[in-house]
What we know:
single chain, alpha+beta, Fumarate Reductase Iron-sulfur Protein, Chain B, domain 2, 5-stranded mixed β-sheet, 11 helices, 13% strand, binds FE2/S2 (inorganic) cluster
Amino acid sequence: xxxxxxxxxxxxxxxxxxxxxxxxxxxxxxxxxxxxxxxxxxxxxxxxxxxxxxxxxxxxxxxxxxxxxxxxxxxxxxxxxxxxxxxxxxxxxxxxxxxxxxxxxxxxxxxxxxxxxxxxxxxxxxxxxxxxxxxxxxxxxxxxxxxxxxxxxxxxxxxxxxxxxxxxxxxxxxxxxxxxxxxxxxxxxxxxxxxxxxxxxxxxxxxxxxxxxxxxxxxxxxxxxxxxxxxxxxxxxxxxxxxxxxxxxxxxxxxxxxxxx
Length: 261
Ligand code: SF4
Ligand code: SF4
Ligand code: FES
């Protein structure tokens, strides 16, 4: 790859090796394009579509890192195509492939519908009475700003599914049926840790969510373009809830006495 300078004075070229085909039948095709300053990989793909092959399939929407549509892999790393500058990639051919953890529909477009099925299975926010009778009497609230701030981070998710793609439980072991994946632990955390929520999803997080498969490698946190600290702020607190609610011997005994288990 001959590169441009960031001030825009020099034009160069980039060579992209792009996966073409479906899940079961495909191969790589190489394209060389003239680059422009500040160009991102999605720009390069649009240029190929405009000048060389308009049948090249890619999903995108905002071109600003906000919609989560353009997820793919660049040189084997899950990335947003629209936020990956060509001049910041290593010299050489740029390999662009669809996300490995999901079936390829065509070229760079994957079928991510499994994620939406998982999303629908999660018990949504369930508001509770904000004050107990005693608190009402004392005019006290149990909501604190600190607790509210804690869940705000989880709302930044743009549903790019890069975390799902990088997670070895889904990517290498294909455990989609028994493991909901990091994006959905973020969703669980957003409702489960919300101070005004009344539902109990701990059994779901363990049984359907399969949080026990996560061994805290932190790869999901590293790829998240929204900067969500998925492991430390969502997964670990959820694991702690599961352990204290399901496996703490005193809690188990108490549930038995109450007839809940
Ligand atoms: S920390 Fe857990 S959820 Fe995240 S990538 Fe690693 S195994 Fe997957
Ligand atoms: S948690 Fe981060 S990486 Fe995962 S889907 Fe949301 S924005 Fe993407
Ligand atoms: S096109 Fe929206 S995040 Fe890339």
